[in-house]
Design goal:
Blueprint lengths: L3 H4 L13 H6 L6 H13 L4 H10 L5 H5 L6 H15 L3 H15 L1 H13 L7 H7 L22 E2 L7 E5 L4 H5 L1 H13 L2 E4 L9 H5 L3 H14 L5 E4 L2 H8 L1 H4 L6 H9 L1 E3 H7 L11 E5 L3 H4 L6 H8 L4 E3 L15 H4 L1 H18 L3 E3 L3 H14 L4 E3 L1 H8 L5
Parallel strand pairs: 2-3, 2-4, 4-5, 6-7, 6-8, 8-9
Antiparallel strand pairs: 1-3
Helix pairs in contact: 3-4, 4-6, 7-8, 11-23, 17-19, 21-22
């Protein structure tokens, strides 16, 4: 629920403007963080309705670049998620809510996602169909359907023992899109964590973390998913996540469950959540076994950099590889435009952000982009392919696991 006190923390100084990709793209005040906060104040005072504010709330990427730039500590993540819940409840046609919920369900149920991608390939579909985009409320889609990995991967055991004396027991979140499209990242994560001295558990009964639900205005559904994780990860010291959006949501479970009987349990769970880079940087790793010459640029996933404050850890880990050249790109912290399912819902603004990102990647001359979020990886890969650039997009732990020969 929107809190007027949160809205009043904004002083309208404007320091958020150049950190906001939708303002940079349009130059319109209503498409800036302070402009959206002004509109929400108008809604709260009864001067306008949710229908008038909805287009501008929908256009927000939720990247939280403004939250990093803000000197006043405006809790923009809390504000935009509450605003989206109000929009879904009061200003979205019922049929469009139904279609959006079905779309999110398809992404957050691995078996269904895998089947839908297989069917799409069978019928020769390369992109999300135009009619599907229009049902979701977009003009038309520019999103290419991803390829399924050549072979499906499932954990061969529920516990992977640590090398040497165990530092701690960690439970790995398999997630939704990560489980279906990026099994190599899970293998690399297991390999690097066990090498670092962690005993890795793959708990039964886990599922979606709720990130896509809460980011699109459905907190009730997000809480339902979170409860499964509370039960699944009771027996481990830490819950390790290798997808930026999932990690940021899980670290904010206390806010998601605020005012409910489960708030204390949610807060205790959130305190145990760690991004994989945090755990690896804290551990002592042996020298790498390979010394490949690599030229890498790093893309800051929004929910890693702005939501979790994790910027230096992935870079520091990559710099441990002696023959790796890390070139910083301009605008590394600016959103690529994927933003969950944003590129389906707002194709024009998403495309603008992607083209800007591709231009900055190309300027570095790097042959690898390191990206720690599945949505970013898929969207940037699409942009690079369309631009004809022979650049790989890999998760940092994939790069590390190859160098340390740590892929199980």
């Amino acid at each position: 629920m929107l809190d007027l006190r949160d809205l009043q923390t904004c002083t309208h100084c404007g320091l958020c403007l150049q950190a906001c990709p939708t303002y940079v793209a349009t130059g319109q005040e209503a498409e800036s963080p302070r402009g959206r906060i002004y509109l929400l104040r108008q809604v709260q005072s009864g001067r306008i309705g949710w229908m008038q504010a909805r287009p501008h709330i929908d256009a927000c990427m939720g990247c939280l670049g403004c939250q990093t730039a803000c000197p006043s500590g405006v809790p923009y993540a809390k504000i935009i998620e509450a605003a989206r819940a109000e929009v879904e409840a009061h200003a979205r046609p019922w049929w469009q809510r139904f279609v959006r919920k079905q779309a999110i369900s398809n992404f957050t149920q691995p078996a269904r996602l895998r089947l839908l991608l297989q069917m799409a390939r069978l019928f020769g579909m390369q992109r999300v169909p135009r009619w599907t985009a229009r049902l979701l409320g977009a003009s038309e889609s520019v999103v290419r359907l991803p390829e399924l990995p050549a072979a499906e991967w499932r954990p061969t055991q529920m516990v992977y023992p640590a090398q040497g004396t165990p530092r701690a027991r960690v439970g790995l979140l398999l997630g939704c899109v990560m489980q279906v499209l990026f099994p190599r990242v899970h293998r690399a994560t297991i390999g690097m964590l066990t090498l670092a001295g962690y005993e890795v558990h793959i708990p039964h009964g886990q599922g979606c973390c709720g990130a896509l639900w809460v980011h699109n205005g459905y907190p009730k559904e997000a809480r339902r998913n979170a409860r499964k994780l509370f039960r699944a990860f009771r027996e481990v010291d830490y819950i390790v996540v290798n997808a930026a959006g999932c990690g940021s949501t899980m670290k904010e479970y206390g806010l998601l469950f605020k005012g409910t009987p489960e708030q204390a349990e949610a807060e205790a769970f959130a305190q145990r959540v760690r991004d994989v880079h945090e755990l690896l940087l804290d551990a002592e790793l042996p020298p790498p076994k390979r010394n490949d010459a690599l030229h890498v640029t790093y893309h800051d996933a929004c929910h890693l950099a702005h939501a979790q404050g994790i910027r230096e850890q992935p870079r520091a880990l990559l710099r441990r590889l002696p023959n790796l050249k890390l070139t910083e790109m301009e605008g590394a912290e600016m959103c690529c435009g994927s933003a969950g399912i944003y590129n389906l819902l707002q194709p024009t603004l998403a495309r603008d952000a992607l083209q800007r990102k591709i231009k900055h990647i190309q300027a570095t001359g790097a042959t690898i982009v390191a990206s720690a979020n599945p949505g970013c990886t898929l969207w940037i890969r699409q942009g690079l392919q369309e631009a004809g650039l022979p650049v790989e997009v890999l998760h940092p732990v994939e790069i590390l696991a190859k160098a340390y020969d740590a892929m199980p």
